[in-house]
Amino acid sequence: MVASGKADAGRGITADRALSDEAWAQISTDLMDRTGLAKPGSSGMGQGDGVRWIAVRHDVPGAEYVHIVATLATEAGRRITPRNDFYRIGEGCRAAEQTYGLRGTGERDRTAAKRASRAETEKAARAGWETPARVALRREPGRRRRRAGCGGVLRPAA
Question: Which residues have CB under 8 Å from 29's CB, separation 6+?
Fold first, then answer.
């Protein structure tokens, strides 16, 4: 489930070298355990408190990858609500990358700048701006002061 530097939170993760079916099975089982959806050693058949899940391997030349699909209910009918599964899968991918000697992916440390929302993007398009305000302000911190009409000088709040 790891890959050429691209881990997509379990939606489709590619390997930069051929891995055996057993390796993909181990990676998939580890990822399901890390997310808390299945217990260690489970086969995806929903035994105990775990959920049913399946890993589908695609072996396209130059792009070997696997998809994992899981139900969000146990065999007993209890609903599962995953928390921070995107980050847990990233951790699992990095662990598998080290184990199998694959190219590494970046860590998800939650410090990246937020993307402009659809509303911000559409507002910028209507106003004829090149970029949304959020992006422009991040690139040019002084621009906010000029737009505010304070001559580039921030005045302390009264």
Answer: 38, 40, 41, 42, 44
